[in-house]
C-alpha cells in the first residue's frame, strides 16, 4: 500500500490518498477526479499526477508505506518529498555559479556558490571522479536575493590539504539546468586583499552570507560538544557520590 501526503508550508502533513490493489482512494476534502496514482512495480515507482493545477496545490508531497519489522511492529517510511511550486513566472537557471577556495592550516575548504535561480528548489552534491562525497559536506539554506523571485545557495566541502591536487566537482540539478563545476581554476578567498572592483556589494554580501552560516553551524557544533562533555562529567560525579 502506497500513501501520498500533502504538506503546505507551516502546516502539518495530511494524507491525500492511498493506493492499494490497483485502486486509488482519495481522502474526503480533496477532489477525487483531480488526483491519479499509478504504481510501476518493475521499476519500484509510484507516480502521483495532479490535474488542472491551482495555486492551492503548492506544497511538498511525500509518498510513504508501512515497513514490517521482524520483531512484529510496523514503521511508516516516508520519501524525501517533492516540492511543487505554482507560479506564473517561468523557471530560470542560475545566472552565476562558481567554486571558491579557502585554505586554513592543513585543510582546504571548497565553497560552491550558485546564484540567482528560480524556483528555489535545487539539488546540490559533491563528487570526485568516482562517486558522491558526503563526508565533511555542509549544505546551506537557500536565500532570497535582493531582486524578487531570485534565489541563491551555497554548499561547502572540507578536505585535507594532502588532497589539494585531487579534483572534486560541485554538481547541481535545477529544473532549468544541470551542471558540474570542477575544483580547478577557482577563485581563492584571501582576506588580506580587497574585493575586485568588478564585484558589486551584493556579491560580497552573498559570500559573507554563507560564511556567516558556516560560522553559525560551527558554533552550534562546539556548543553540542561542550554540552556532551558537561553531561559526561556530571555522570562521573554522580558515580563517585553514590559509590
TrEMBL record:
GO cellular component: membrane
The keyword Cell membrane is annotated on this UniProt entry: no
Residue ranges occupied by any Ig-like domain in the UniProt entry: 94-182
Keywords associated with the record: Immunoglobulin domain, Membrane, Receptor, Transmembrane, Transmembrane helix
Pfam families: C1-set (PF07654), V-set (PF07686)
Record's keyword annotation contains Hydrolase: no
Membrane-crossing segments per the record: 220-242
Subcellular localization: Membrane
Protein name: IGK protein
Originating species: Orthonyx spaldingii (Chowchilla)
Gene expressing this chain: Igk
